[in-house]
Design brief:
Elements: H1 2-13, E1 25-26, E2 29-30, H2 36-39, E3 48-55, E4 58-62, H3 65-73, H4 87-93, E5 100-107, E6 110-114, E7 116-117, E8 120-121, H5 122-128, H6 131-145
Antiparallel strand pairs: 1-2, 3-4, 5-6, 7-8
Helix pairs in contact: 4-6
Length: 147
């Protein structure tokens, strides 16, 4: 009985630290430390450590206190789709692939990020195919791989 009580306490006490999905983090921050609010203002910029918050067990950095406050007031409005992994790779291969934080698209009010290295700019592939169909495929695949 005592062991069950200990396991219950441990599982409930750590639940605030776990993530509901897997976020693409680099150096401990979502989107390589870029400010997720800045994407919606047309120019992604790196965040600063003094403007940091944790959401869903993941650290996010912001370029300013104002951006931090915007995020805190409605985090889900700014979260990158698919945990910040490459939207194209999630759609086509059902895989989590790192991104270039400067290669992105805002589609229907959501942030999509893409891999871009050499001749593999997946945003270009995404746009030349059917993005709306790819979103549907990615949404379906993400349900299987998000944890």
């Amino acid at each position: 009985m005592r062991i069950f009580l200990i396991l219950f306490i441990l599982s409930t006490s750590t639940s605030g630290w776990t993530q509901s999905i897997d976020y693409n983090t680099k150096n401990g921050y979502a989107i390589h430390g870029y400010d997720v609010v800045s994407y919606f203002e047309g120019e992604p910029v790196e965040g600063k450590k003094e403007f940091t918050t944790t959401y869903d067990g993941t650290k996010f950095q912001f370029a300013s206190k104002a951006h931090l406050q915007k995020f805190q007031s409605d985090p889900t409005a700014y979260l990158p789709k698919y945990g910040g992994y490459c939207a194209y790779a999630v759609a086509v291969n059902g895989k989590k692939v790192n991104v270039d934080p400067l290669t992105y698209e805002i589609r229907k009010g959501r942030l999509y990020l893409f891999y871009n290295k050499g001749k593999n700019n997946t945003l270009e592939f995404w746009l030349s195919e059917s993005p709306n169909e790819l979103v549907s495929k990615a949404d379906e695949n993400w349900e299987q791989i998000k944890n």
